[in-house]
Amino acid sequence: MKDISLVLKMMLKEKRDILISIFFGFLAGITAVSLFAASGYLISQAAFAPPIYTLMILVASVKLLGITSAVSRYGERYFSHRGTFTILKNIRLKVYDQIEPLASRLLQKYRSGDILARIVGDVESLQHFFLRVFYPPVVLAAVFTATIFFTMYLSIGVAMTMIGGVIIVLVVFPSIFYLFQKKTAVTMREKRGALSSEFTDYLYGFRELTIFQQAERKKQQLDNNMKQYEEIKAKENRQLAIREAVVIFFSFFIAVIILVQAGFYVSEGNLAGTLLAMLFMIAITVFEDTPSMAVLPAHLEESKASSKRLTEVWEKETQTEVAVHEIETDVPIQFDFKDVSIQYPTEKKPAVRLAAFQIKPGTNIAIVGPSGSGKSTLMQAMLTFAPIQSGQLLVNGEELDKIAPDSLWRQMNVSLQHNHFFYGSIYENLRFANKEAGEEACQEALEKVQLSHFSLEDQVLEKGTNLSGGEKQRLALARLFLRDASVWLLDEPTSSLDAITEQEIMEEIEKATKYQTVVTIRHRLTGLEKMDQIIVMNHGEVVEQGTYMELMRKKDGYFKAMKELENSQLV
Amino acid sequence: MGVASLFMALAIVGQSYLVVTIIQQLFLDNAAFSSILPAVFILIGMLLVRTVFQYMIKGSGIKMAQTAKVSIREKLLRHFTSQPMIDADKGQSGRKTSLFMDTIDEIDGYFSQYLPQVIQSVGIVLIVWLVIFIQNWTSGLIILVSAPFIPVFMMIIGIKTKDKSKEQLSELAAFSGTFLDTLQGLPTVKLFGRSQEQRNKIDQDSTSFRDATMGVLKVAFTNSLALEFIAMLSIGLIALEIAIRMIIFQNLSFFTGFFVLLLAPELFSQLKQLGSAFHSGRASMGAASRVEDVLDEETTPVSWGTASLKTDKAPELRLEQASFHYEEGNFQLAPASMRILPYEQVAIIGKTGAGKSTLLHVLAGFLPAKEGNFLIDGIAQEKVEKADWFGRIGYLSQQPYVFSGTVRDNILLGSQEEQHDKVIQEVAEHAGIWKWITALPDGLDTIIGEGGRGLSGGEKQRIAIARTLLKKPQILFFDEPTTGLDIQTEHILQKSLDTLRNQTTMITVAHRLHTIRNADKIFLLDQGEIAGEGTHEQLYKNNEMYRKMIHTQQGGREA
């Protein structure tokens, strides 16, 4: 129960829709039972050629019950689905509330976006909990209870049989199925993961595989994986079908038992013969909806797993207190790296080792080095997004983790390597940086980054998938022009642009940041002559630092060698 | 399946027949209780038959889904791999994987649920109707008149709402993606201090998502409401008709009346189940049509033949007026002629977008020449045996692919047979990665690639070099990396290439003056055309464009 407490809590917030749908569900079920009971009684009565008016009453009530049942079914469906989507909304908000404060720490932990996709997947799968796990047994139990009370009035014995049947269908079967469910779910997930990664390997390594003549072998492997996965999937489907068959057979069987039992009472003279058909009709109808109990364990298991994974995301995080000390706004910001080492928990090697340097207010700093050398990690650390293992990162002499991150970010303009854009217009995306920015200011910002061919109404798709790499980089910079900040952190802001555009935009940034601190990660070594300081990284270490002239004067210097290598490049 | 559905229908009829018999005997004939017991056992047997056949129908549907999915996946694989072997594009990777995994999984429902339901329903409805008609033709007539309303009604609603709801549903799918969008953008949200606004947005979006979805669902619900009404009306009419015939005309027995009254709901419940299966079937068909769309995309596979090449020596390569253009985009490689002798060092240079990589891909057999000829040792490329060709080439790209598996597996890709660890050590040392491997906790057995240890660009590059050294190709195609490598890797690359120099034809898309100066032959490309050919000295003397390129690069300095 603990595992699904999250979804239960969120579900119970929607009491109204839940109660209404249970009410309609009950009404639909009970009217269906009454309908068939009445028709069973009708036919039995008809055999004795009764006065026509009793018949008319029965026929009319059959009609009325039929209409009520159909309409209630509609209401049940409507409200239960509406409730489901409201519950989904509640879960989303809850998850957002939980994850939002942890965002930076979660990103430290899981550098890929997979975790987020998994969270979203889990939230989506929880929406089935109400509809397929919680709701069906509640409604069934209610309908059964009412029916059993009615049956008791006719025959205690039959009612007892019915109670037994209910216990088996609602409790015994689901429990047994549930025990079997757990095992297959795990192997299924594993096989699916294996297939997916085999596929990626085969497709994206296809050229290598062809050249090294391993494509056939790998294809064989992939085929095997494919067949195994389908085999286990089919097995699961067959299991579900068997369960369904078992439940269906049992519900017919219990109806037959009741028929025999009631038949015995009739032959003994303890029960009126006219009730025989009716009791059978009641039994067969009331057990008609029970096949939903066959799929319940599968959904329960899924909901539990999702709910557990979700809560783990935030429960495992030690609830360290978020620093509340605000950084003063009128003091220029200085960063001091004192032998800072950074290591991500999932990595065996530190990403940055013993980095020591200073970033003084108002200076222009470049960080250079080969890919994977730890440049971006340094910047992530300044944003509180990286786990510092040892050493100190001081902001105006204070340790970074003692400062409220919000107050730091407020003074920063950041362009990350992968900038995020939201589904919406260019205008909305620009105003994300500054709510007060008007159309004119936004247009101006677009011009500065040479995107004036965009109109403010143009749509940006999720994650900016309809923009090219260069457009995304420029749009990210345009956002920054709308926002005042004393520190600019730019991670390869123009790597997808051609050299000329790059230079022009960098000039615009220079104009806007005369008095500001600017830290830029560079992939090209051009235009570094004017920098106040260049920090050269390799294999996670700061190998050199100094001005351009200082670095170029070094004999056998790393930077000098890099620069010479670049100079020998033709394009 | 069809046979099973007939048997199931017969079981249903038999089941109702027996129930009626039992009730009739006990209720009207006042038979002794023991006399009905045989009927009870047969009845239970009928139930068993019914469930078994129902399971059999389902089972064969599941089987069909299994085979269909395997064959669709295989088709999709063939399709993907017959596309030109260009660089593994990471951005596309997610989309193709999701098509291969999720979309095809969605098709499952069509075979495992929809199709079995259709066959089951059709068989049962026909048989049960026939029995009703024989028993009491008037009831049969009522059903015959009312039942067709159900599919007709569904079709009318379906046609009316299909496009609208399809459009709406795809919009909704995009909409539900906004939650992921927000979570992925959380760092941006926080950096710009917009957490509260985003929370409100999730709230609003989810609410309007709910309302929009309900709009679509309402149609489906109204559909089944109408269905229930028709069924109800029809059953009600039958009940009325039976009652009138039993009481007023007294020309219908209790037995027949009850029998028909038991069978009619079975018939309609099959129709109802068909209706709901129809909805889920449509979602599966949507998935199928998405796969269909991808399969319909044109591919330009490279065809190969059966002729074998001389084994001992690197083949001579010749292009004769060979051209290539992509299906999309307007880039075109103009008809080009070139000749590359065994063991020559060739450099291909030009500006970004000049077609250097395309030319390299045509020469490596990754892309087909659209017109003209590509001759390998004088044999047309499409006649050469594929394995023979790929057995002798190597290819180093800017993004080498690392497979999920051990370091050993990844290096051994370069060898056809089992190799001693000593050999692996040798090539790894040459590739400058042996020290790195020994420092790993599991050494050669460390898992790398997807799901394993992440590698830096330099480490990947060195693994690829080790592979290539192990293979010792006769021709090496090399797309020189432009940026991002560290200096050590750069040196190692250079050294390794030098060791291959005299035993390998080397064709390099060159970005470095060093490579160009050492080349026996340089091809200068401009806008898809060969604008110059010769040694460095020849081109420098005769080619204006080449001179200009070299000058701008050197910026007046001596390189």
TrEMBL record, chain A:
One of its GO terms (biological process) is cell redox homeostasis. It is found in: Cell membrane. SUPFAM superfamilies: ABC transporter transmembrane region (SSF90123), P-loop containing nucleoside triphosphate hydrolases (SSF52540). The keyword Membrane applies. Residues 335-564 form the ABC transporter domain. Keywords: ATP-binding, Coiled coil, Membrane, Nucleotide-binding, Transmembrane, Transmembrane helix. It is a multi-pass membrane protein. One of its GO terms (molecular function) is ATPase-coupled lipid transmembrane transporter activity. Residues 212-239 form a coiled coil. Residues 19-288 form the ABC transmembrane type-1 domain. The chain crosses the membrane at residues 20-44, 50-72, 133-156, 162-180, 245-265. One of its GO terms (cellular component) is plasma membrane. SMART domains: AAA. The keyword Coiled coil applies. InterPro entries: AAA+_ATPase, ABC1_TM_dom, ABC1_TM_sf, ABC_CydC/D, ABC_transporter-like_ATP-bd, ABC_transporter-like_CS, P-loop_NTPase, Type_1_exporter. This is Putative ABC transporter ATP-binding protein. It comes from Oceanobacillus oncorhynchi. The lineage of its organism: Bacteria, Bacillati, Bacillota, Bacilli, Bacillales.
Automatic annotation (TrEMBL), chain B:
InterPro entries: AAA+_ATPase, ABC1_TM_dom, ABC1_TM_sf, ABC_transporter-like_ATP-bd, ABC_transporter-like_CS, ABC_transptr_CydD, P-loop_NTPase, Type_1_exporter. Residues 1-283 form the ABC transmembrane type-1 domain. SMART domains: AAA. It is a multi-pass membrane protein. Its main location: membrane. Pfam families: ABC_membrane, ABC_tran. The keyword Membrane applies. GO terms for biological process: cysteine transport. Residues 317-552 form the ABC transporter domain. GO terms for cellular component: plasma membrane. Signal peptide: none annotated. The chain crosses the membrane at residues 31-53, 114-134, 140-159, 219-240. GO terms for molecular function: ABC-type transporter activity; ATP binding; ATP hydrolysis activity; cysteine-type peptidase activity. This is ATP-binding/permease protein CydD. It comes from Oceanobacillus oncorhynchi.
